[in-house]
Every structure is written in structure tokens, then in C-alpha cells.
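[job 4471] stage=fold_predict status=RUNNING
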Amino acid sequence: MTPVHDLLCDEDMDELLETVDQWGRDYPHIPRSVVQHARLVVSKSIPCSLLRSLREDVDLTSKALGYTFRRAAKILDASPEELVQLADWSPNDVDPNRFDAMLAELRAVIFLDDERFSDIWLLASKGEKKADGTATRGQTRYAVEVACCTTLKHPPELAPFVASKYDEKKHQLEATAEVEHCRGSVLVLVFVDLSQIALVTREEYLERGIKPAWYELGLPITTHLAVVAHASDNCVFPPWIGDTSP
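[job 4471] inference complete, writing C-alpha cells
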């Protein structure tokens, strides 16, 4: 049952649906399948991060989605509909967590591009245990795994949370690194709930999250942990291969 506080009144629903219907005109890079998914989420009041973000600031959320699909399409040289296929999402999948995971992969692609990576590829899993993609920085090829994080972790909980996410994903990273001949690997934790991520600062993500987790896990210098939240909060540890050592 949908919680009472997540239900939309008719006036709010009509306003949100009107905005979503204008995405095709205002943000042509947002795929039609995503517009249909957003209409379903709003009309059925499906509790998820997309609905929360739309309710809190529909204009900002619309712009953020338009930006994400536009940047990712350019980086991956793909059409809007090809993007959702590359990210292994189907419009028939009504599970809101799968939509969040698709967006997380696209935001990770943008992060890697901002970090001066090239040859960024998403790898369709097809049920196989492998990482989400590969990318190259300088002369080093990396296996890339994305962890979609939909729940805020307060600073004292960050390091154990990051460590647990790495333990969940390490086999995919290791398998892909071997098959794709990658020297480096990176786990990118993407926090998708725009209503919460600003409550944690970049310094906290770094100093109380990925940095202590990296030391606790005893990872090699070629394995990196990264956080993608607001652009000003994005961070990575240790520095990329070839950059300054920790």
C-alpha cells in the first residue's frame, strides 16, 4: 500500500503530469520510455526517489534528467533510447530501484568523463557476473562497477557502508578486470536521492567514507572508491593511477 504522505492530490498530480508531458519538447534527450515511466510513477503515486524529487522541485528534477541524458548520449555516442538499453533498463520494468540503477550508471559515465576518462563503455550483463563497464584514463584501462545508493548514510555509518558495497561488487570487478585486461578498477557509489545527498559534505564522503573504507579493506593502489552526489561533492580515493599517491 502506498503511504499516505506519498499520495498526490488531483491538483498536484495534474501539474506534475503536465510538466512530464512537456519533456519531449523542453528536453528532447529524455527518452520517450522514461517519460512514460515518469507518468506511471506520478499517476500511481509509486513511492520512489523520482517521485520525491519531482514533488520537491519539478523544474530542477526535469533539468537534471535532461542534462544527464544529454551528456551521457554525447559521451557514449548513443541515441536517448539506446542509452536506456546500454544501461540495461526496460520501460516494462516498474521496479523503481531499476530505474534508479539506470540513472546511476549514466551519472557515473558523466563523472568518469569529468575525471578525464575516455573510451567509456557500458557492458550489458545478460545475467553474467561482470562489472558495469570499462574506461581508460591515460594509459590505464579500468573495470568500472556502479553501486546505486538510495538511502542516506550519516557520516559515522559511511565507511562500513562503503566497505559492504565493495564486498558486494568485488567479484564483478575482479572478473571484468581479468577478461578485459584492466590494470585498474573503480567502484562508483552514486547517491540518487537529490532530496538527501546535500546533507553530507564532500569532506565527509572522503574522510569518513571512502578513505577509511579503502584502508580497512586493504585494497591495492590500483583499486579506487568514488562517490558521485552533487558535482561539488564528487570525490575519489586513492588518486587515479599516475596522479599523486595517497
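[job 4471] summary: Strands lie at 118-122, 133-137, 140-149, 184-191, 223-228, 235-237.
[job 4471] exit 0
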